[in-house]
Structure formats: structure tokens, C-alpha cells
């Protein structure tokens, strides 16, 4: 009887671990926030460079849209 309970408890723990892993994989915003936080701590210049690149890309798209609208 004890062996069966131990097996059941072990199976439940494995299912819980699997579900936690699946939840983590599907939670993209949380993983993204973790990556940004890790990048901020390890190499903040890369984060600043990425932010500048995104701002430049958005500025370029806006500039092209305004220029196309003027034609």
C-alpha cells in the first residue's frame, strides 16, 4: 500500500512539474521581462542600443509615412 501511494505521489509531482514547465513556456510576457531584466543587469549598454535602434526604426517608419502622405 505504501509503495502505491509513493508511486502516486511521485506521478503527481511529475505532472505538476510538467504543467509548470508548460506554463512557463507559454508565458511569453514573463519570459521577455526576465530576459530584459537579465540584460539590464549583465550588459546595460546593449539594452540602451536596442532601445535606440527601436526608436530609430519607428522614427523612420513615421518619416516614410509622412513623406508618402505629402506626395
Written overview of the protein:
By secondary structure, the protein is mostly helical. It has one domain (2-70). It contains three helices and no strands. Helix 2 crosses helix 3 (44-70). It is elongated and about 80 Å long. The N and C termini lie far apart (82 Å).
Summarize the topology.
Layout: H1 2-26, H2 28-42, H3 44-70
What distinguishing features does this structure have?
mainly alpha, 71 residues, single chain
- Largest sheet entry: none
Domain module count: 1
Hey, roughly how much beta strand do the residues contain? under 5%
Question: Helical region count?
Answer: 3
Series of secondary-structure elements, N-terminal to C-terminal: HHH
What portion of residues is helical?
over 70%
Keywords: Membrane, Transmembrane, Transmembrane helix
Organism: Leifsonia poae
Protein name: DUF3618 domain-containing protein
Transmembrane segments: 45-66
Brief summary:
The chain has about 70 residues and is an all-alpha fold.
Amino acid at each position: 500500500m505504501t509503495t502505491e501511494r509513493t508511486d502516486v505521489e511521485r506521478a503527481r509531482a511529475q505532472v505538476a512539474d510538467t504543467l509548470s514547465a508548460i506554463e512557463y513556456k507559454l508565458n511569453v510576457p514573463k519570459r521577455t521581462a526576465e530576459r530584459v531584466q537579465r540584460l539590464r543587469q549583465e550588459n546595460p549598454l546593449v539594452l540602451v542600443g536596442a532601445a535606440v535602434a527601436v526608436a530609430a526604426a519607428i522614427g523612420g517608419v513615421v518619416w516614410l509615412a509622412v513623406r508618402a502622405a505629402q506626395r
